[in-house]
Amino acid sequence: MTSTITLTEAAEQLGVHYMTAYRYVRTGRLYAEKVGGQWVVSTDDLKALKEKPAKPQRAIDAPVQLERRLLAGDEAGSVQILEDAMAAGADAEEVYLDILRPSLATVGKRWADGEISIADEHIATTVAHRVLARLGSRMTARGRSRGTILLAVVQFDQHSIPTAMLRDLLQVRGFDVVDLGANTPSGSIIERAAATPDLLAIGLAATHKDNDAAITETLNALHAATDVPVVLGGSAIRDAEHGRSLGQCTVSTSPLEAIERFEEIHAAAHAA
């Protein structure tokens, strides 16, 4: 009889982050079943995945290459790196979460550590926005809409890339997405929510670590104005406990976990 282990243990054996292993499950690379509230995989399936050929070195180096192109202000070169990855078989999640997101995280860390200037960071961010705009038009799914998700970054938070990336990843799953972008007052979110038909959920992003008061104000205002579920995430949210302490919401600690929360909301809405 084949033995099973948890997905967390599988991630450790693969030498990858848990959310990478979870993406393997979501994309069909690794079969898993949910037992007692947690994902489990068979050791045979895990062995088969481990025996598959490793990614070519170019794919492994792609985040480093992209970081260099972003800092150089090279939009065409940045797009080419991502297009090469897609041509080699990478899906939207791999391109955004394994290449673009790590590149931007490295840029942010280098700025925080004083290795690059504010101007350098702004150049990289501006190019990233243009790259997302060019790729975003391809991130759509055919067929009937699965409902609309409203995304926004909390007030006083100027980083709009997290919701832009999440928007595209949700669109390829068949959701319609309205992205209000950065620095969005709670009143604007409420106004747009009221005007959006078939609104399934609201996604709230927070990246500024000293902005808890604005997050709480927004969550309280949304709770008072609408019964639409709210998913809170972003780098400012340390963990699920921290997120829940800020107000009534469902918490996600990564883009893939946010997607899973939206999928659960969709499933619950259609099971009712």
How do the strands and helices of this protein lay out in sequence?
Blueprint: E1 4-6, H1 7-14, H2 18-26, E2 33-35, E3 38-42, H3 43-50, H4 57-71, H5 75-87, H6 92-112, H7 118-136, E4 148-153, H8 161-171, E5 176-179, H9 186-194, E6 199-205, H10 212-225, E7 230-233, H11 240-245, E8 250-251, H12 255-271
What does this structure look like?
- With about 270 residues, the chain is α/β, with parallel strands linked by helices.
- The protein folds into 3 domains: about 5-50; about 55-135, Orthogonal Bundle (Methyltransferase, Methionine Synthase (B12-binding Domains), Chain A, domain 1), CATH 1.10.1240; about 150-270, Rossmann fold.
- The protein has 12 helices and 8 strands.
- The chain has helices spanning about 5-15, 20-25, 45-50, 55-70, 75-85, 90-110, 120-135, 160-170, 185-195, 210-225, 240-245, 255-270; strands at about 5, 35, 40, 150-155, 175-180, 200-205, 230-235, 250.
- The strands form 2 sheets. Strands 5-4-6-7-8 form a 5-stranded parallel sheet, with helices on both faces. A 3-stranded antiparallel sheet has the order 1-3-2.
- Strand 6 (about 200-205), helix 10 and strand 7 form a beta-alpha-beta unit.
- It is globular.
